[in-house]
Amino acid sequence: MRHVDVLIIGGGPAGISAAIWCKRLGIDCLLLEEQSQLGGQLFNIFNEIIDYPGMRTKNGIEMQREMVKHFVEMDCLYEVNTKVLFIDERSKTVKVKKQAKEQEICYTYLILATGSSQRKLGVPGEQQMIDRGEVYSASADGERLKGKTVAIIGGGDRAFEGAHLLSSKAREVYLIHRSTRFKAREQYVERVVSNPGIKVMTDTEVTAIHGDRHVTSIDLESKNKEYKSKNLLVDAVLIRLGVAPNVELIKGNVATAQNGLVVTDEVHQSSNPFIYAIGDACTTPLFSSISSSAGQGTIVAKHISSLLTKS
Amino acid sequence: MRHVDVLIIGGGPAGISAAIWCKRLGIDCLLLEEQSQLGGQLFNIFNEIIDYPGMRTKNGIEMQREMVKHFVEMDCLYEVNTKVLFIDERSKTVKVKKQAKEQEICYTYLILATGSSQRKLGVPGEQQMIDRGEVYSASADGERLKGKTVAIIGGGDRAFEGAHLLSSKAREVYLIHRSTRFKAREQYVERVVSNPGIKVMTDTEVTAIHGDRHVTSIDLESKNKEYKSKNLLVDAVLIRLGVAPNVELIKGNVATAQNGLVVTDEVHQSSNPFIYAIGDACTTPLFSSISSSAGQGTIVAKHISSLLTKS
Question: How far does CA B157 lie from the centroid of its chain?
């Protein structure tokens, strides 16, 4: 059976950083990525990246290219299209599948860098909208959304903050939430509710997003019977349903917090001393960034290096 | 009196990252740097930087240029040649001096990004050697030091690790330490002492470094009277006396650990809730890196942003 000192699951910025550092420190390391390309959530960044110190890129794809170039130049070992099916923490083995072929890999230390996923509405038209690149940042896209009618879907901080930020730019802002209760902080909610430029629609589900070249309208269904179904003309939809860490693989093996995040200490060790977590699998959305993910990859590789040197 | 929401002391990677993120998050921020240029310890990196994910640079100066370019393009406010003389945590004010002119600046939050300094021997020839760029990494410069006679000065982990790493490359390795007691871990010491390629000289002080274009020899003085003074022919000197965090300014204001580092929590808050520390002022040399410093700058700016939004 194949054995590696460090096995990294996930090829986003955190995993890439850990692999580069393992290589730098002379550690025998392999990175596994489920998708066909490394980069993880970088593929979901459509705006300019201005906050990775020393490097500005047009978008996430450009950052992905630079990171992968660095990774490949360092001769880091990796496998794409490789799904981890199962982690056996007792035998320190993972079972992976690549194109119908299954194999087992044995590790000394495992680094979970599986990231998080944006929750989606799961309605017709949503994926097409995303594929067209109609993905906006409320803080950075004020100019792009100037004079437009914007629907923000969600009931948490980011939904309310986005509505507040865009209310001064957009022509009209709708905040649409399926419940009457909000997860957002009270002062965020107050600020939005008292803003005459924002229409808050509660107990309302979005059932479809329409538009061929760009979003033109959404279908709404009200639960409080005010209206059964309604078509609302909008120019842009911002889905703010939050993110969920990708921790299905590890659940039960290590301690996770109520929000699903893997609990780690200051060197990113989980409750299992042979399993580490970095990046969005263990970081709240508030602190999630390329920069902090890269920093965590560094820390964990340096820590594991010191353990391997000792032994 | 001038007031800023966030005052950053120190313009190395940690401070630059915090400033870029403050700007990104719309926080009123000012960075103060004592030297004439931003960059901090980047000026001491003479080797290729291969471990900042996404960016490889020939040396620290090239990295400095990219980081400063980014910083300046973001319109971050800063002052160079500006020494902080005093921090008054009660009035939340710092006294600074720029070209004989003193002024006071009031802050809401203070970020200490003062870095650390390499301890030096303080002997003739040392600064000239550094200025000539004769600064080596034991892990990265094996090829550059191949076949050479190398003196490593120090008694800690890095000195012993360096001696071990270079023993297979260099022609001869001397490990020179002023005491007979070592701070290094036992297994490091054992590995070096049992290595016939390394000569360990204890109770020995280096009193001078000679050489015009490059190092040619060093003067040694033995405390155990074996020899009074001795000139040793060497081609390279690696000074490994450890680093000390630059925390003189803050001592007494916030809790520091025995190693001098500012004690911080997971969002880099110190024992004073209005004072934060990032980078080498709060990070052990083992975990010090451009990448983790940048990550810490991100975290602290995001955290302070959430506090400022609340208020």
Answer: 16
